[in-house]
Amino acid sequence: MTTLLLDLVNSRIVYPDGPRDELAGDAAARAWLRERGAQGTPEEIADARAVRPLLAAVIRGERSLDTLEPWVGVMRRRARLTRDGLIWDDDVPAGRRVGARAVEEWAALQGPEGSRIRPCAAHDCQHFLVDNSRGNARKWHSMEICGNRAKARRHYARSKSEG
């Protein structure tokens, strides 16, 4: 399952040879947002760039929830009556729509067992993951990459200490 939130916080990763930022250029950011259901307007691009580092910091526990107030404070829903029943429409200013949607997704991932979105446990990884496991115990964004490296390091450390 791909979410705007997860894609957004994973859209800028710094590698040894430099950063890879999927929102760096306006054309790339517009296409990126359109792929995720937004219109890709200049306001949405600016909003995505503004909310991304704040969401990442909140998820890592480096910033308080108050950091997200500029998006939460403008969230409104309006009811509309149709032949099919009551429909709720989001009524959020254009310059806060992307962030509000990402914050709403973040809020849906919080629960009594803890947050379902977290940073990858690998010390050298900057990715985030959404844990859909029953026990909420997933550690790595990718078992094939980070999980295998962690297991290989543990195995090497054990074999070295035994030898």
UniProtKB/TrEMBL annotation:
Residues 116-158 form the Zinc finger CGNR domain. It holds the Pfam family ABATE. InterPro entries: ABATE, ABATE_dom_sf, Znf_CGNR. PANTHER family: BLL6575 PROTEIN. This is Zf-CGNR multi-domain protein. The lineage of its organism: Bacteria, Bacillati, Actinomycetota, Actinomycetes, Jiangellales.
